[in-house]
Structure formats: C-alpha cells, structure tokens
Amino acid sequence: MTDRTALVVVDMQNSFLHPDGENFYPAAPEVIAPIRALIEAAAASDTTIVHVCDRHREGFDDLEQIRLPVHCVTGGFNAEFYDGFGPQGRPREITITKRRYSAFFATELALFLHEQGISRVLLCGVKTNVCVRATATDAFANGYEVVLVREATNSNRAHLAEASLEDVDRYIGKVVDLKTALGMLG
C-alpha cells in the first residue's frame, strides 16, 4: 500500500463554532483558520478530505444522551456545518456522519479509507479530549498512522486538551505543528 494521507476534519459544526451554538466555547474559533489552511492544502494536493459531523435523530433515544444533553439534532442549526466547512464541491471530499465520539465507531470510515489505499490520517477539529481523541484512538486501532495537528484542535477544557495531545503523541501517533502538517499535504 502506498503512503496515502486523508485529512479528517472532526465536528466543524455550528454547535461548537457559532456563537449561538449549543456547545460553543470561546476558544473554538481559534481552530477555524488553521483548519481552513489544511483543507485548502489538501484540496490543492488532491488529498482525500473527510468531513465528519455529529448528528442525532430527534425524538429517539441515543446512548450519548446518558452523558450529554440532546445536541446536534439532524436538520437543525446546530447540526449543520459551520460557514465554509463541510463539502464545498472540491474534488475528493466526503461526509461521514457519526453518533458517537469516534468517527470510526459504527460508520463506514475505516472501510472507505481502506478502499482508497489510505495509510495515514491527519486529524483536526473539535474537541481534542473527546471526539478528536476518540477518533485518533480508533484510527490507531484500525491500523492507520495517526497525525494530530496541534493548532487545529482545542477544547473548552485546556488541561484535558493538553493531556490528550500528550497521550496521542506518546501512545497513538504523533502531534505536529501546522507548518509540518501543511508540508505533509504539499
């Protein structure tokens, strides 16, 4: 298998990024510019771009609701991609919808990446200590080389984000700066 990379963009949705979003936190917008730069570099280099979104069905039980309030209900403002994110008609981009923290759990992501000959996932998005970390862990468990971009992820709990970055770098993959990640896409 050739060394092919996919950019996996996690949960860039109104819920987290829009000031009126139900899960908005003040640091969230700091990832917007770095992630836009990653998406532009990926598109320019014909890299597969996976836009992951967290969406839940209205009126149905969902296991996440044991730990979290109802959020990102399909069809609602919060579940939609934030302005400029999600598929924009670029070549080689898809959407994966998830109902759990990990973009791999009970989705077709691993199958899709395998079919494309992908060996490395470059991860970014929100929140570092929840969905990004769960996705990184499952990417590793599925045999992918995991690279997490430091400036392109954060959390409303900075100490947990830092601990997650340390754990990812130590046990799961590597954490790189934005310049290094852009070089991987160029």
Give the gist of this structure.
Helices cover 33% and strands 23% of the residues. With 186 residues, the protein is α/β, with parallel strands linked by helices.
Q: Could you explain the architecture of this structure?
A:
- It is a single chain.
- With 186 residues, the protein is α/β, with parallel strands linked by helices.
- The chain has one domain: 3-Layer(aba) Sandwich (Rossmann fold).
- A 6-stranded parallel β-sheet has the order 3-2-1-4-5-6, with helices on both faces.
- Strand 5, helix 5 and strand 6 form a beta-alpha-beta unit.
- Helix 2 runs parallel beside helix 6 and helix 4 packs parallel to helix 5.
- The protein is globular, with a radius of gyration of 15 Å.
- The model has no long low-confidence stretch (mean pLDDT 96).
